[in-house]
Every structure is written in C-alpha cells, then in structure tokens.
Amino acid sequence: MSIYFDHAATTPMADVAITALNTQLKKLGNASSLHSAGRSVRKDLEGGREEIAKAIDCQASEVIFTATGTEANNLAIKGLYWKGVKENKKVIITSTFEHHAVMDPIVWLSEHEGAQIVGINVDRNGFLNLDELKQAVSEHEGKIALISIMHSNNEVGTLQDIAQVVKIAGQIPVHADCVQSFGKVSLSFKQLGLTAATVSAHKVGGPLGVAALILKRGLDIEPILHGGGQERDIRSGTFNAPSIVSFAAAAKESVAQSNQRSEIIRKLKAELISTIKKGVPDIWVNGDQEKSLPGIISITFPKTDSEGLLLLLDSEGIACSTGSACSAGVQRPSHVLLAMGLTEDETTSTLRFSLNHSNTIIEIAKLGAVIASVVARSRAASGKK
Amino acid sequence: MKKLKVIAAMSGGVDSAVAAARAVDAGYEVVGVHLALSSNPQKYRSGARGCCTIEDSHDARRAADVIGIPFYIWDMAEEFHKGVVENFLSEYQSGRTPNPCLRCNEKIKFEAVLDRAKALGFDGVVTGHYAVTKDSPTGKTLHRAADIDKDQSYVLAVLRTDQIEGAIFPLGDTVKTDTRKEAKERGLFVANKPDSHDICFVPSGDNAGWLRERLGSETGDIVDQAGKKLGEHKGAYTYTIGQRRGLALTVPDPTGEPRYVLKIEPKSNTVVVGSHDALAVSTISATPPTWCGLIPEINKSLRGFAQVRAHGAPLACDYKFDGTNLIANLDEPVFGLATGQALVIYDGDRVVGSGTICETI
After folding, report:
1. B-chain residues near A329 (CB < 8 A)
2. Contact call for B61 and A327, based on CB within 8 A
3. What's the structural domain count of chain A?
4. Do A232 and A299 share a domain, yes or no?
5. Could you give the ipTM of this predicted complex?
6. What is the pTM of this model?
7. What is the mean pLDDT of chain B?
8. Gap between the Cα atoms of B115 and B37, Å rounded
9. How high is the mean pLDDT of chain A?
10. Contacts of A305 (CB under 8 A, 6+ apart)
C-alpha cells in the first residue's frame, strides 16, 4: 500500500462528499431554470451555500462559487484592485511568500495595469513582519487598493495573525487566501473582519474543480468572467450544483471534526519529525511549529537534492512534495523558503510532508525505516558540498 | 534475483520511448527521466530541432504513462551549458568544428545522468541510441547498429569502458521503420513524431547566426594559401572546412576553379581558401584517445576503418597509438575534414577507439 503524505496538494474525498456528489449528479436541472426541476436543484445548491457560510462563519450571500481557488484569488485581487483604481488607489500590499495564485495576479496587475506592489517580509519562523506592514500602511495612506495576506502558508504551514492585519489595515480591504486553513483550524470570516477570503473544496475532502470566494456583502467588484451573472453578477457560468453540494458536505464534516482531527494530526506530526530526526540527525524543520497548521511539515535535509529524495521515496511507495516546479516540470528554488532566509541550495534540499487524520504511526515508521538510506543516496547524487 | 534498476532517458521522441518500453519487457525496473537541458525552454518544437521544449517533456511524460513507469524531470541545464554549449563555443573560437551530440553523450547522458543514477542506486541508463553493446572477456564492447543508416556508434565512441558498462541500447538490433511500427503497436502516440536532427540548442537552425551573436562578427581577411587577400569574411567562426558556397570572394581564381575553405585561423581572424586538391587529407591525428576495450600496443600499426563524420563512410586505414595520439593513415584521401570532429576507428563493426581530430595532413 502506498503511503500518502501530500494532503496539502489534495486529499481523499470524504465519503459524505462522494455520496452527495453521486446523488446530485443523478439529478436533472439547471439551477438557474425556473421550472420545478431547476428549482429543486437550486434548493440543494442554496442549502450547500448556507453550509459553506456556516463553516466559515459568514452570510450565505457572501459566498461566491468559483471553479478553483486560483480563480477566486484572481477575482478578489483583480476586482478589489480595479475598484481601488477608481479612487486612484494603486498600491497592493502583500507578503513575500504568498502562493503563486496570489502572487502572480498581483505581478500581472503591476505589469499590465499599473499596480505598485509593496511586499512585506517574513521572518525565519515564517511570520509576517507586522511592524513593516504598519509602516507600509502609513507610508502609502490613501493609495492602497488592497492588502492580500495568506491565512496560512502552504509550504511551511505557519498561521498569520490576520486579525492584526485587518486591524492595521483599518478601512483598507483585506483579502486572505484561506485555502490551507479552511477545515483545519478555526476560521471566522466575520470575526477576522475580512473583506474577502478564498477557500477550496478539494483541500477539505470535497471534489476538484469547485471553490469559493467569500466576499463581503454589498461589495461589488468587477467580474473576470462575463456571462449569465449567476453569482451576484460577479461570477458567471452555469452553477456546478453537484460539486457545490459535495463541497458543502465535505466542509461541514471537516469543520465539525477539525478539533478532534487536529489533535490526532499534531501527534502524527511530532512523531514524523522525531522519526526523521532519528534517521537523519542534521535535518531541520522550517517555520514555527506552534502557530501553524497541524499537518504541514517542511523539512530541510542538508546537502541532498529534493528531486532525488522524492524519486527514491516514491519508489518506496511514499508520496510527498518538493515544492514548486516551472511549466517545464523543472524544480525551482521555493520563493517561500527563500523569503524565509534559506539559501537556494537549502530550498532544493527540502521536502514538504503534509498529513491528515487518516495517516498512521505505522506509515511513519515505514518512512523511518527507509529515510536514512534515501538521504544517503540523494546526498551522493546531489553533488552539494 | 533482484530486478536490475535502470533510468530510461526519455527525450519525448519515438526512439527513447520504445527503448524504455523494451527495457520494461526485458525485466528491468525502469524509471523514466526527461532531461531539461535549457533553463528557458521554448514551448513548442519548431520543426525537427531539439528535444528540450515543454512539448517534448510532455510527450516524454505521456509515453512513460502509457508504458506504465514512473517519470521525473531532471534539471541538467547547468551541466549541459558547461559541458556542451560552452565547449561548442570554445571549440569554434579555436577554429575547430565540434560535434555537440557526442559531447552530450560523453558529459551528460553517460556522465552526469549515469553518475546520478548510480548514486541513487540504479544500475544503468537506457537510451534510444542505435548502437549495440556486446559482452566480452574484457568487458562490454560497442558496435554498429543493425540499421546502418541510423547507426549512432560514432557519437557514442567517446564513451569510456565504464560508461559503456552502464549503458543499455535496446534499439541496436532494430531498423527505424520497425521502431515506429512498434511504437504504434504499443500505443505510443510519438510513433509519427519527426526525427530530431541539427543542434538542439540552436532552435532557429541558423548555426552561423547563433555563433555570430555569441562570438561577435568581426570581419577579417579571406586569403589564399600564399596569404594573398581574396575577400573579407563576417566572423571566421561561421565557416566550415570544405565550405564552397557563400565565400563572396572579390578576386577570382585565375584558373576559374572553385575555391574551398581549407583552414580557419582564429588568432589572426583569417579564413584560408584553396583548390579542392588542397582539401585532401591522408593522415589524421586525434586526441585524447578513448579506447573501447584493450589499449593497443604503442606504435604498432593495425588495420581498420576510420570514420570522421556522423553517418560518414568507413574509410580503410592503418592506425596506431603513438602513446599520445591516435593516428590513422587512410588508404584513399578524404576531402574537407575539420579538426574538432571525432575520428572513430572500427574493427569490422566494433568500435576500437576514438579521439578528437587535432591535426590533418
């Protein structure tokens, strides 16, 4: 049996989500249609919207379904920026270690739409420098279109103090990419005071191809996709009712179980770190382990080459992740780890293990049985001194 | 018995795909690897050039999936640049005409990749080259392929015995048309992909232009063998020994005979031209020799065949090793031979040894 330590990439669908999806797939009707078949699907879909709203503590009308987290991030960032531009606000404040789905639309706006990017540094522990944020906010007062800071980092798992970010921002709209946090740690859109947040189904046991932008009620932003205006005139496209209903079922379950699962996963995480340390004493874990997601562990294996590590672990039936690759599939030094102060060599010696509640101590022991030999072989192959 | 583990280098072309599939059939545990040789790959293949576009890496991945083997991409851009591209430029700068495919086999596929594979615990590297290896009491030997038109033993002759030991060429006994047929039968959609030729890192195919961009296009004199100026050139590097066209000589030959490039002298930035007869070469020295098998006795004259170009004809010769160089005396002269190319000596179909041509007389 293969061992899966890559749940932050995607995680198995929950049984409740599969059942919901199957049931809904058999149901005929376009949720926008006025006849009874359409109304019936619409009823299920709106029920799903309410579940998602409950899960993230927002109003149902604040949930805008999209196809992916990337789409939701693009919609929020571009929409809030274009809104700001109308008031001559062209500054976008963000962290230096956002996911590409946040970083790249911001870079695109600076290259094509005149946005000015202000990147706030992060420290070696993986936390945003809030003093620097304060300074940037006062320095660019009246010129800031939005602030986008991830709720938790997808490579190292550190949780950012978003409540504090919102406080510093004052009237400035704040967007948070909550894709990794949703269903893992408690998350309240309302309490955080966010303007916008992104969540995605397949990270919480829902299906691929559905996500949501949570956008403050009454706020209208420019759409990216134009068409039928199904979602508040902000997002067009036929309602993906089966996926939405399935997403809602998964979200409901993972939020309800999150405390209990988090406890299990944190224990597994500690076990995984100590097991690897036993086999390879000179490793280190990147990012703070306290204020972090339960399941994400970034480990640097000095003088190895993560491509080689992944290949060898894969051949042992163990799946983990090396971080990002370019479009040609070539591994690139992680901008997240570089932002945290690692060297290029160290970033390409790093693996991410991401756990969920279904992982076991036995699986970790199996990793422990091979890790020393895998690391030794990767060291011999890497040529790093 | 434990299965032997091998890396299959998969370019995204038909040959390496079929080679990988055959290695699986032969009982190896195969892992497919595509080598990313450029740090800024082009999205698509233009014509038949290269094997390092994003499209090629996608094709390689798809082939690996169909065969049912794991697949990874290895970044060899730095090694490729150092070992192949920089060598290509410095050879031209020294007035020689290098063969980058040969250098790629020597420095990348059977050095960087093979070394990495061995360090990771693999036993060898499988490629889609058309060549044959045979076991002998003194170790593996390298031979010509069954498909003589596709034979690639010339560009592999540079490999040391230990490199040959780690090399597996499943296509050596096959003609290319059968490889394509087999690819189709195996459901590999690369079956009809055009063969790659030319130099993969010169995607435009304009070798002269590519060299001018990197080495400059300082004009200089084109002279005859007596040193008399006959015209001007736009960068000595862009000429090849034996070249006749595009010389744009302003002084015609008194006999009306065509003139050919005889020599490129990078130090004086001069191109020397002369008659076809002056291109004749009977003695070739090559260094440093690589022996595929036992090192011949010093200064002992032996009979064999010399090959001086990829897909060139075998030329009957006497050859010897003088302790430093491999020297071939051809029975019949050959015309227009550039230094920098490889001299490969064959005994029948077996590769005896090779070296880079440093002097021709």
Report:
1. 34, 36, 57, 61, 73
2. no
3. 2
4. no
5. 0.88
6. 0.91
7. 91
8. 17
9. 96
10. A348, A349, A378, A381, A382, A383, A384
